[in-house]
Amino acid sequence: MTKLITRKTFRDIISKKQNLFILLGVWLICILSCFINYIQFTTHAASVESHRTEVREKWENRPDKHPHRMAHYGYLVFRLAHPMSILDKGLDDYLGNVIFLEAHKQNTANISEANSSGVIVRFGVFTPAFILQVLLPLIIFFVGFNLITKEKENNTLKLLSIQGASKKAIIFGKVKGLWHYALLLSLPVFPILIGLISYSYLSTFSDILFRSLLILFSYALFYFLLSSIVVGISTLSKNSSSALINLITIWLLMSIILPKAVQYTAQISYPIESRIAFETKLEKEILKVGDSHNPNDPYFSHIKDSLLNHYNVDNVNKLPFNYGGFIMKQGEKISTDIYNKKIKKLEDTFEKQYSITQYSGYFNPMTAIKSFSIMVCATDYYSYKIFQNQAEEYRYKLAQYMNDLQIEHISNDKSKNEIISQENWKNLPDFKYQYTGLLTSLQTQLTTCSALVFWFAISLLIILLSIKKLKFN
Amino acid sequence: MNKYLYKQFFQNKVYVFSLILLFLLGIVSIHTGVTFLEKNNQLMQDATEYQEQSIQKNTAHETHIGSTLYYIKFHLFNEPNKLTALNIGMRDFTPSLKGVTIRNLEEQKYNTDFYNPTSALAGNFDFSFVLIFLFPLIIIAINFNILSQEKESGTLKLLSLQSGNIKRIIDTKLLIRFLAIISIYFLLLLTAKLWIGIALDSTFSLFILLGFLYILFWFVLCRFIIASNKNTSYNALSLIIIWIGINFIVPMISFVLIQKMYPIEEALQTVIEQRDGYHNKWDEPQKNTIDKFHNIYPQFKTNDTIFNNDFNWKWYYAMQHLADVESMKSSIAYQSKIKARNNAAKLIGYFLPSMHTLILSSELALSDQNNILAYENKLKDFHKEKRLHFYPLIFSNQDSTVENWNNHKLEKFKAQSNVSILELLLPLFLIITILLIISHKKLRKLC
Fold first, then answer.
1. What is the residue extent of each domain of chain B?
2. Interface test with B, best of A104, A249, A276 (most B CBs within 10 A)
3. Alpha-carbon distance A246 to A254, whole Å?
4. What residue intervals traverse the membrane (chain B) (predicted)?
């Protein structure tokens, strides 16, 4: 019987001209936005690649020079978005695209798309994810709001029960019928997406397939929840128009009011330090340990004395290696350690702010699916953090490699103006950004994953409640 | 009769509740603005203090002034106005404070402050958000069924018998609702004015006028839909779809189109050019660099200087400056692309009230792209001023004690928004008039 009602509900929805029209319209804009995003992504990837090779060529072709000059010439690394961003751009537009890496100093990632887009960036970007997360729910609400109320208004519920339909069969049937329609709206997008994304060759096919399947599965679950909400509200409402108004209110709460309110709470609860405050404090903390520029600094004079003792010489210029390089190496190590500790604190604040959003996923299913989606599409904060961390690791490696070259190949006699061969530059491998593994992402964001499970349970509860509340007369 | 319609509105609990809700959300949004201004104020105080500390620290030892200036950052603060609290615009993810040394500017000017990208994506709960997104919703909620409900419950006939004119009933109902909403609007603005201390000057007046017209636009739009004389769900559906179209889909698609039409490649190119422009000079004879520098600044020419390969500060700062010169083309191209993007958005805005209201109110609130560009240009002048002040000292090999460092305090840049009243008024005014005329004709048919 459930099957029968499911099929009938689905056929009724599809046979309405209006709903067929919606179906075609959604497919059209979905495919359109897929292609627009695909073109944008490939342009972005090509630009990153050409800049990357340009930077590398320039690096390798630097003439012979003092290694410390190279440490300051530094490196430019460009952020490459994950191909899954074709589906869900997530934070992409707000992330810096280039970091300048040099010795002694950690720079921020600069030049985001939002910086150059004007204030209309506030309206958001048109992506397949927006259609799937925000528009489709509204469409599902509009299509299904009168599923039960219409039966009530036409007095056909009794007829159904006479024909042998139980309350359970009616509710389940309606939910599943609407759900099938929702799946029909969204499913055709996925083969196209997977095709486009894997065509970009920027990640392995299996990675993309697995991510896409997870997305597919989560959206299917989300639409099941929405369908049960629709049927639940339709059962509880007096008439069709109040059902519609209730559903629209729910949609508004989920899509704009709650997310903004959560955002407001997060920013009030965990304020962020300004960069100037951060850098001033950082500098102070580094100086507290030791100032490598100050010849009388106790920390560094201690190092000096022990070196002189160990090599049994009376002057640093007589040491068998480059003293300046050695001191810089120590300095780099100290400042990087302190920087990492401080930046960790800042990142923790960002994460605390985000955790409020994540927990709000238990109040707002749309937030739950959004957080899950950007996580699986690797366009979330954690992926960005990993990019930044990899860049910082590379910066440290570059600086210390140059210090080592200096220690080894440059004499202590400054008047000689020594340089070393450019062959050495090639020995520093290029920066290769490794995308965050899917499993790592899933493990670090269990809250987000379990929110989906939670909402599946809720959808079953809603169905049970509706069954209880459904009245035949 | 009017009294009855008035009562009908204010006795409806849902209506009163939505008005209160709107007011409360407005208050929260003003609080967001207050917090924002406080944070900015703190930033300004911090910057004043930190710059002082940094100068003190770096001038403690007597060294060549060129070496001192390598470390000292001079800060320029892009002062918000009080209205920024009502429209934070791009201010949360673009820096309001930039510090630069007199070394090359291009390397420093794109530096950002810390911001959480997750928060930036979610956007601010500021007054403009409440105005642009939430006011229309409440307007729709209290208007969509004013005709259809009477019709469906059968009271329309009774009403029209009493007054004889459906059009007048609808307009009276709309007017009552308009007065209610606009009172909330002015009450919120009054709260903001007192809480934040906004002066009632021409900028604020334009801001108020813009919001007023935007609210009026939504009422007129509702009138237009109501005049079609369809049933309740049709009205609700079409108004919500229009709301989503105006506030989401069309601006979002415009955004994508603008990005596509004006792709920005120059930014990354500038970064590369600036870096090479400077570093390549280390491998060239010093004389080349110095000569190029003297072509730009002949006033700093000296005859007696001999440039061998030893490090000297004149050569160093000449190298730094040439990096800016060599990346200038890309830098200017980048700026003009940004301007083009902004102008395209403005143009679309003339036809789309939501975009128009957001763009112009952020322009008034000094939180839009134009403000950022003006700030960048000011930063360039500021940087140049500092350079030209210090070049003579550096080139005559002075040490840091000759300068009176107390003169280098935090500087503030106060931009002026130059929104013309015509540009602000005309697009909305035209749309409103057109909608009024069409709905008028439709309503006349009804009677």
1. 1-447
2. A276
3. 12
4. 12-34, 127-147, 174-198, 204-226, 238-258, 419-438
Whether residues B236 and A78 touch (CB distance < 8 A) is answered with: no
Q: Residue A393's pLDDT is what?
A: 93
Least confident window among A55-59, A196-200, A433-437: A196-200
Which residue type does B84 have? Answer: T
Helices A167-186 and A17-60, packing angle to 10 deg: 50
**In this complex, do B93 and A69 lie within 8 Å of one another by their Cβ atoms?**
no
Single out the residue of B32, B95, B126 nearest to residue A267, CA to CA. Answer: B32
Q: In this complex, is the C-beta atom of A55 within 8 Å of any C-beta atom belonging to chain B?
A: yes
Structure tokens at B90: 């791009």
- Round to whole Å and give the CA distance between B81 and B361: 12
CA distance B298 to B11: 80
**pLDDT given at position A157:** 83
B333, B262 Cβ separation under 8 angstroms? no
Pairwise pLDDT comparison (A325 vs A137), residue with the higher score: A137
Q: What is the pLDDT of residue B1?
A: 67
DSSP state, B165? -
How many angstroms separate the CA of residue B149 from the nearest CA in chain A? 10
Name residues whose C-beta falls within 8 Å of residue A232's C-beta, 6 or more positions apart in sequence: A462, A463, A465, A466
Cβ contact, residue pair B256, A260, below 8 Å: no
> Domain boundaries in chain A?
2-469
Residue A34: name the closest of A117, A105, A132 by CA: A132
Q: Which of A88, A116, A292 to mutate to test the interface with B (most CBs of B within 10 A)?
A: A116
Q: Write down the pTM of the prediction.
A: 0.90
DSSP label at residue A2: H
Q: Do A121 and B337 touch (CB under 8 A)?
A: no
Give pLDDT tens digits for A76-102.
Answer: 999 999 999 999 999 999 998 999 999
